[in-house]
């Protein structure tokens, strides 16, 4: 026997519905649906009772808890038919409010984009989006200020100073440019990529030169840049491997590439003053023996590896440590 409560037409369609029972129960939609579910169009489509039963058996979203008393629901891990989604969402929100959940996140895959309007109607807002999903979030406590951080607002790029034994630096002229220029090879850091690896990769891609990290030189920080984001541009010195005199440019991005004498570069009319500053600082560090290098470490709790950059004074005399100062005082 089929429970009458499972056949409420209002759950499925905004107007008339008919059903028929033969070997299995089928629903035939005969007018426009309230929502556009994935896998169902607006007219003359049907689905089996087994699918509908699966929809009704899912009562609440579970999600993944975080240390901030938040919940994240991933549509690829907790699939839900669009027809059942509004009721399940409302029930889940009521339960989460009872459990004092603070932030609720929905990671909605592109295939489940039908969820988005229902989430928006229940107080969710966009937080960020990638090519394959959108992340929406809602703050549940009414007596607590929302402290959900904004999505990453800074883009990270690299430029590389590559100087050979002839005191020539590697320079490029971009194919798509606003004005004639000679600049340092470089580009944006890819997600999950170390700054030093990005510099090595960009040099290889744009010029075919293989070079290895030598030291960090400096960085530039600017706001309201690409896509309205802040932008950090790190300048990294690389040492070219032997036998890198022959250059091959990336035809897709680069119009010209060459080894240019460093003195010529510093006085070239088509070199931006900021790039002159970068190269001047590099030469200054080379002469003084100062370098900014890194060492690898691992977070004790999160067990994630990271790089720590620090200043090496080289031939410069380091300041006395506090212990050395105490020892000198005791001798006096």
Automatic annotation (TrEMBL):
Check the record and name the SUPFAM superfamilies matching this protein: Nudix
Does the keyword section mention Hydrolase? Answer: yes
Q: Which residue range or ranges hold the Nudix hydrolase domain? A: 153-284
Q: Which InterPro entries match?
A: Nudix_hydrolase, NUDIX_hydrolase-like_dom_sf, Nudix_hydrolase6-like, NUDIX_hydrolase_dom, Pre-Nudix
Q: Drop me one GO molecular function for this one.
A: ADP-ribose diphosphatase activity
Specify whether Repeat is a keyword of the entry: no
Coiled-coil zones: none
PANTHER family for this protein = FI03680P, NUDIX HYDROLASE RELATED
Q: Which family does it belong to?
A: Belongs to the Nudix hydrolase family.
Name of the molecule in the record: Nudix hydrolase 8 isoform X3
Organism whose genome encodes this protein? Thrips palmi
Per the UniProt record, the lineage of the source organism begins with: Eukaryota, Metazoa, Ecdysozoa, Arthropoda, Hexapoda
């Amino acid at each position: 026997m089929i429970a009458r409560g499972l056949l409420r037409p209002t759950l499925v369609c905004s107007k008339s519905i008919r059903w028929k029972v033969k070997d299995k129960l089928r629903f035939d939609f005969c007018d426009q649906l309230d929502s556009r579910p994935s896998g169902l169009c607006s007219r003359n489509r049907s689905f089996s009772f087994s699918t509908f039963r699966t929809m009704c058996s899912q009562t609440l979203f579970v999600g993944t808890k975080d240390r901030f008393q938040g919940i994240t629901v991933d549509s690829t891990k907790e699939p839900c038919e669009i027809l059942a989604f509004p009721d399940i969402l409302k029930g889940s929100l009521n339960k989460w409010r009872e459990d004092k959940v603070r932030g609720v996140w929905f990671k909605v895959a592109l295939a489940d984009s039908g969820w988005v309007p229902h989430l928006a109607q229940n107080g969710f807002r966009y937080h960020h989006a990638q090519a394959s999903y959108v992340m929406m979030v809602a703050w549940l406590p009414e007596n607590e200020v929302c402290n959900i951080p904004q999505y990453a607002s800074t883009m990270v790029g690299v430029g590389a100073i590559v100087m050979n034994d002839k005191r020539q630096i590697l320079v490029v002229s971009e194919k798509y440019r606003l004005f004639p220029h000679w600049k340092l090879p470089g580009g944006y850091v890819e997600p999950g990529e170390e700054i030093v690896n990005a510099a090595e990769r960009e040099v290889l891609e744009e010029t075919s030169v293989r070079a290895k990290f030598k030291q960090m030189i400096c960085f530039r920080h600017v706001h309201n840049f690409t896509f309205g984001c802040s932008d950090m541009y790190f300048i990294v010195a690389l040492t070219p491997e032997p036998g890198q005199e022959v250059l091959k440019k990336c035809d897709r991005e680069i119009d010209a590439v060459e080894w240019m004498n460093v003195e010529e570069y510093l006085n070239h009319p088509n070199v931006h003053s900021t790039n002159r500053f970068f190269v001047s600082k590099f030469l200054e560090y080379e002469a003084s023996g100062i370098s900014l290098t890194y060492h690898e470490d691992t977070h004790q709790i999160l067990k994630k590896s990271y790089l720590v950059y620090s200043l090496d004074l080289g031939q410069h005399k380091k300041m006395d440590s506090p212990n050395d100062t105490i020892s000198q005082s005791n001798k006096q």
